[in-house]
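hi! just following up on the protien thing from before. the input was this:
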Amino acid sequence: MHPPARPESGRALGWALGLTILIAVAEIAGGLLSHSLALLADAWHMVTDAGALGLSLFALWVAQRPATAEKSFGYYRVEILAALFNGALLIAITVWIVVEAFGRLRHPRPIDSVLMLVVATIGLGANLWAVIMLHRARQENLNTQAAYLHILGDTLGSVGTMAAAGIILVTGWLPADALISMGIAVLILVSATRLVSESVDILLEATPAHVSLPELQSAIGAVPGVTGVHDLHVWTVSNGIVAMSAHATVPDPAGQQAALEEICRRVRTFGIQHVTVQLEVQSVWHREG
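and the predicted 3d structure came back as:
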């Protein structure tokens, strides 16, 4: 297997990283000067995102390295590890935001809503640009999807911060800052939980959601000449790379090549690219003892 070329992911991640660093610096300064938790939450979220985007770029580069004798599947799983780390980081961020928000609800602080609104608006513009760049590239792999979710969370954070600034500017109601921060945290948590779940499934080599193991076994078993199928396993190596291994019993040695070709053809209709099939004249499954 050869690693898929992902130049679009690399360019999009590079631009997103540059924008995130610039806006994070602006929002940290604006949050400290305006005393806005929503702005600071979004700022520190973006600081973390900058690190996550840098990790995503590194993982994308490492994944392109060829397979070796020691790592026969190459470095595809580095992308999944990076995605898992990014998701866990997002969950940690939501916990910090919620804890800080409860503190602000008990002890509100004066907020410069005008400065808060200006900085949040600038941040929204930059985040929307990054979202547009990553929107198409997010389909290429789970790691890029993680980066996309980070930036999407930043965008939602900017919208929420602008809303809080508007409410405080018009009504002077300071709790709006903390409450909207908690709302942003919930949105981030939903995406992060899904991302962590998908990453863990891949690392545990769970059967991909789009593959029905009983249907796949029936399709292989229905191949002319095949009398049995066992030890069937399907797993995701990395995004876009699904592998399968199985044992198939074909009693007639003369028909094994034709059966193997038909099995491979049917298996690929399930979206499985890497196929390993062991053919047997009779089943040798579990003959211990």
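The first strand starts at residue 228 and ends at 238.
Strands lie at 228-238, 241-249, 274-280.
cheers
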